[in-house]
Design brief:
This protein is an alpha+beta fold. Helices cover 36% and strands 32% of the residues.
């Protein structure tokens, strides 16, 4: 009996070690262009990506309180990329990357994302709006291709940024509805 308990304890400890290793690995966030969300700093991003493409500071993001950089993405080697918006939080950590691309690259982009991140939602009708959402650690990746547009957006966002965006947008919507209702 003592030998069985020892084996059982060793097995449980081994499983716990494997589980803790796998969850710490799975905790890594999405990393657009090799820059991990919530980890990469403004300085690191500028030293790495800023030397590959021209980025211009475009102000402070109202959802994150951090700096925004924008450019056309030329030099990054991403097929169909026409615009890139990079968002940092108030602590100068990468909070979001929004890439505007030609929608003709939807399927190949979705396939590449599916190999890298966990798919949580997908709507890909033959005709109509196409959408795919992925998760990785404390971040989400959303691929959004509106039917009546020539472009699609690939958004990499921290959960914190997405929550702030969702709450602020809902608050603004409610305020607009109250303002409209007061005019009648």
């Amino acid at each position: 009996m003592p030998l069985s308990c020892t084996r059982l304890i060793k097995s449980i400890l081994t499983l716990l070690m494997v589980f803790s290793y796998s969850t710490s690995y799975a905790g890594n966030n999405a990393a657009p262009l090799g820059q991990e969300l919530g980890v990469t700093t403004l300085k690191q991003f500028q030293e790495s990506i800023g030397v590959q493409t021209q980025l211009t500071e475009t102000g402070t993001n109202k959802f994150s309180g951090g700096v925004m950089l924008e450019g056309n993405g030329e030099g990054l080697g991403v097929d169909g990329l026409t615009k890139i918006l990079v968002i940092f939080n108030a602590s100068n950590q990468l909070s979001g990357v929004v890439m505007t691309m030609s929608k003709s690259h939807f399927q190949e982009t979705m396939n590449a994302l599916s190999k890298k991140y966990k798919l949580v939602n997908k709507q890909v009708p033959f005709v109509g709006n196409k959408f795919a959402k992925y998760k990785q650690g404390n971040s989400v990746v959303m691929l959004d291709s509106p039917h009546m547009s020539f472009d699609m957006e690939l958004r990499y966002l921290t959960n914190e940024f997405l929550a702030s965006y969702t709450k602020t947008s809902a608050d603004e919507n409610a305020e607009n509805k109250r303002n409209q209702a007061s005019k009648f």
